[in-house]
Amino acid sequence: MTADIVVTDKNPLVLAGLKSLLEAEEGLRVVGTAADGLEFLDVIANVKCDVGVIGWEMPGCDGRAVLDAVAERPDAPRIVIYTGVPGTRVVREAMLYGAAGFCHKGDSNEALLDVVGSVAEGRMSFPFTDLRRLADDPWETLTRREIELLDALKTGRSNKQIAVDIGITENTVKFHLKNLFLKLGVKNRAQAVATALSRGDS
């Protein structure tokens, strides 16, 4: 199965290199490129893709804004943050905003391919050291939308009812719930609610 990728970078040389690297990998196909966040959103509005590779600090529309915008789209691509911004703060922030993977520009090409490949297969992929810091409390990785949906699950509402009440599509609800279950290590809404209640959330 081939995963369709849209790649973004403000540097034309880096963008060309990323495109060549990903296209040379079996199972990956670059179907679009963009120079910044706004252009990325325009591209994915017209070209269906499975994974988007974007920067964090981009002119006009940064990684945070892109992740917020993508989360509201039905059949949204999973996002990999590929950035040169140093420090662990950006990794945690990317997780909180709903990214599915993270790779630093200082890492090897093989590391980027591993991250993109894992995300394309439906897994989350973040630096091991940062995941260890968050492992003791996966609740810290939940996005604002995921917390909102978890609260809605406690009321027993269906996906359709939640979508209407929050003002998003039912497909978007399913997208967020899938990520929520993955982060909490549960398989369904009943387990998610039970986990929340056992934690003391009411």
UniProtKB/TrEMBL annotation:
GO MF annotation terms: DNA binding
Keywords assigned: DNA-binding, Phosphoprotein
InterPro entries: CheY-like_superfamily (IPR011006), NreC/VraR/RcsB-like_REC (IPR058245), Sig_transdc_resp-reg_C-effctor (IPR016032), Sig_transdc_resp-reg_receiver (IPR001789), Tscrpt_reg_LuxR_C (IPR000792), WalR-like (IPR039420), WH-like_DNA-bd_sf (IPR036388)
PROSITE patterns on file: HTH_LUXR_1 (PS00622), HTH_LUXR_2 (PS50043), RESPONSE_REGULATORY (PS50110)
Database matches in SMART domains: HTH_LUXR (SM00421), REC (SM00448)
Biological process, per Gene Ontology: phosphorelay signal transduction system; regulation of DNA-templated transcription
Sequence ranges assigned to domain HTH luxR-type in this UniProt record: 135-200
Highest taxon above the source species: Bacteria
Pfam families for the chain: GerE, Response_reg
Domain Response regulatory: 4-120
Name used for this protein in its record: LuxR family two component transcriptional regulator
Source organism per UniProt: Aestuariispira insulae
Lineage, broadest ranks: Bacteria, Pseudomonadati, Pseudomonadota, Alphaproteobacteria, Rhodospirillales
